[in-house]
Amino acid sequence: MNQSVVIIPFDENEVDDVAPRPVSSSNPDVDFVDGALLRLDAYKAVWSRCASRIRGILDKLYAPVVQDVSRFLLDDRPRDDSALQLEVEIPTALLISTDQSTISVALWKALDPLLSEENDSSSVGDGELGLPRGVVVRLAARACSTLASTLKIVTKSLATQLGRYISNSTQDAEEVEDMRGVAALYQRAFGDASDTHKPHIILTLEEIESFDPLILQDLLELLAYYAPRLPFRLLFTLSTTAGYLQTAMPRAALIGLKTECFQAPTGEVVSEHLIRGLYFDPSFEPLIALGPIGIHALRELSTLYATPAAGLTSALQVMHMYHFYDPRAVLSLPALGENEGDGEVLFEGRENWADYVRAALSGRDETLFALEPQGRLKRSYRSLYLGDTEDLAGLVAVARGNFHEMTRRTRSAVMVLLAIREHCATLGLRVWEPRMRTLDVYQAALEGRLRDVVNNAVTLVKRMEFQQLQDLLEVLHTTCDGWPQHVRREEKELRQDIVVFKNLGEDEEALADFGVKLEEYFKARLVKMSDLALYDALCLDGVVDYAMDLINPTARSGITAALMQPMTWLEAKLELPEHEAGTTKAQEAELVTYPDASILFLRSLEAGKKINLLDWFESFSMAVEKEAEHFTKQEETPSPRKRRRAKVNGKQVNGPRASGKSAEEEAEEREQELQVRFVRSVQELEYVGILKHSARRTDFAVRTLFETVD
């Protein structure tokens, strides 16, 4: 690094004077002024609300296992004298989770305040005030490449923490170099305290599979040797199973450990809780809904690809980012259309944008949107194109309110259906097939495909005995009482029916009417989401495919498309006269501008499984034979940009040579140049996995990619 560096000082005054750059739009023909800025602000507000909700769901989901691990590490367990065991065993917690990052954050978020707590003098009874509950050393595989480096980290960290509880011990802590010195320092700090109140020494080895088994074996043997003098507690985090320790290390190294397994929630459980807490919890109303396509995508990420909670959160964030790139996403703003004059501000002089909004308001089933007879949306959406532009803002506000109302009712209906299913399960009854998961029910509810499930549930309710139905009504009453005030107000009719049928006597005919009420209730609420107005503006389904391609891209098809159509990403094609466009000559001129790897790949498509390298090289030489001629003509084009030296896709062509060399020398140099370019391009194709060399015949290459589509 011997290049010169220029440092430009930062001046805030100069930055303030610069006008802000305009934000580009995905569809400027139909977008309006500052629409991208409005969508950016809307995205920040929507995602911050969604992200805080996700954090609360994950904390609540991981709280039980985190609490159990914390109690295991910090609390003393009574010794089981009835069982045969070693004199000193090190309690070891095995935390099994496929999402190491999320569980680690949740664990240390709960452990840090517990470790900082000091023993209460009232519980100690012998004046041991100010003692910590534990001393922690966190070990990572990257820093523990050898046993010496591992012990150095452990001893230095423990000496520094233990020295805080000894007066005038800074020099003594710095002189500690081995575990014997740590044991002596621990005895000086807490030797006078009772055994029940001495702090534990907690060693955490995160992602135990990444550690060298030999180093781990030596470390465990050393800890077992010092266990009588130091109260160790071990925490191993695994992403596989507890059987990894038995397969990676000998039994003698594990005999001094008293292990206990703690299983964190799986990816499928996490995805179910996230979707339920974000989009099917009546107590939370998202501004942007998730449709059946999005639910299917998240379920595949959690089941097929074992995506952790952090990956699912990133997927949802990418979906929101893509969604607010569309101009229609601005219609999700809660304040849009509520004030007078919004129509003039948004639609005046923007007929293309107004037609775009009219198309978003147009629904497939117009009878679903007129929830009230006096509603303004009783008019046909097909007649919106004949209406005034000033009325669009008000119609957007009404349609947005109706969309959120219908989604709220759908959430309530799904919760009622799940409550019926749980109660029927206690009675040994089955509402839907066992292979049907809760996520499948969510997806089917948004697609309007729960008719068979609803009919089965209603039939089971009608056939229930008196006491069974009374228990069900009590469950539904408890479910409804847990909803927010505005949701209970909307579901007033259902709550009244539950109270009425609870107070009825043992009358089979009267109680059977509750099943009819339920059937009407589900029929009015479980509608197809895609038929609602503003579905594309208020739902993420339209951008799921783009987000999934970014999250889980198909590298093979991407590389193939780039090799077959390189000019999609590279410079523009050669400009040919109109009478030569589309001819064979034009195709040859276009092929010359391709990179060498693309030319070789296109030539290989005509071959079989094996490619003769000599024939391939001759075909490549013929393809680039007229390279200099085409670039020379391009230089002669009377354009300021074309007068410079031709350099296209890394190929430098200087036109006719005037170096004074003979034709044979130039031909030999040209041959060597082509050979170098050919070898380099073949190596590039081999690197990306499109071909491989044959071990038996070195003059042939073997294709690994077939059936490409142009």
From TrEMBL:
Protein localization: Nucleus
One Gene Ontology term of the molecular function aspect: DNA replication origin binding
UniProt KW keywords: DNA replication, DNA-binding, Nucleus
A single BP term in Gene Ontology: DNA replication initiation
Region (Disordered): 629-670
CDD domains per record: Orc3
Protein name in the entry: Uncharacterized protein
Annotated source species: Dacryopinax primogenitus (strain DJM 731) (Brown rot fungus)
